[in-house]
Write a structure and sequence with these properties.
Elements: H1 3-35, H2 39-49, H3 53-56, H4 58-70, H5 72-81, H6 83-102, H7 109-139, H8 159-183, H9 186-217, H10 226-246, H11 250-272, E1 275-277, E2 287-288, H12 296-323, H13 330-334
Antiparallel strand pairs: 1-2
Helix pairs in contact: 1-2, 1-4, 1-7, 1-8, 1-11, 4-5, 6-7, 7-8, 8-9, 8-11, 9-10, 10-11
Amino acid sequence: MDLNTLWFWLIGVLFIGFFILEGFDYGVGILLPFLGKDDDERRVLINTIGPFWDGNEVWVIAAGGTMFGAFPHWYATMFSGFYLALVVLLLALIARGVAFEFRSKDARPAWRNFWDWMIFVGSFVPALLWGVAFGNLMRGVPINAQMEYAGDFFTLLNPYALLVGVFAVAVMTLHGALFLLLRTEGDIATRVRGIVNKLWLVAFALYLVTLIASALATDLLTRPTMPIVVALLGGVALFVARRLHRQQRDGWAFGMTAATIAATLLTFALTLYPRVMISTLKPEWSLTIYTASSTPYTLSVMSVVALIFIPLVIAYQVWTYYIFRQRVSKKTIEA
């Protein structure tokens, strides 16, 4: 394995870690206005992700920084082409972060209700736009011979990309609901358990539709068989998640939705490789891990840095989840 291939897969691992961890954050935020019946219950829901959400975002910062260092042409083409969508995503994330901090600054119900809906918007919009972005990378976008994006904002809003975006919202919402079963108790947990089956039906149906659409709208079927196998395994994991949930084995069910997210992103990476952005104008104008990469020296230095710091980041996050492993309830909020 050369360094170009190594860094392609390392970026893939960073994105998988991000969507598994931030995915349940988004899911809890999307469910917040609907599951929390009063201020205390909404505070409980927020506190389930309170110690984790900003740490989880480190993974996407690391992925973006790594992309810039290892594949600068990929970074430049994607961030310039998807600029407006990324600005909307960033504004939604800012609103979400501000909402976590501002919500408790005033006890008025209208104030808190407004910021609760900002948490919803700041969770729903990024989940949707991340799916749209990856759908466009999977389908391909107009890139010219100068490695420049030749479309506009509305080019990105094609039916396939929007379908992937809706699927991303559905699976992250289900992922977040299963996380709440691990972190809450009492009435909230009972209410969550009652909606998981409905969320699962939507997520599983969208998974099947997205898989069929991917076979029709992308070159998935022309690639080696591995992407198809991984995609089917992701569907199996999602199916098993429902059975485990019915047996109240919530930790394993949560692990299965995490496996589905990982399998979805791995299918994307296997279909894309060795390309990083597909040109719909001419196949030879597609960006690859070789045409978009930095120098071998840069990749070598980055490999040493990653070898040192990635284990430290993982160790820190494992410690954080261990420290805040207790369930959250109204009693703990009152205390």
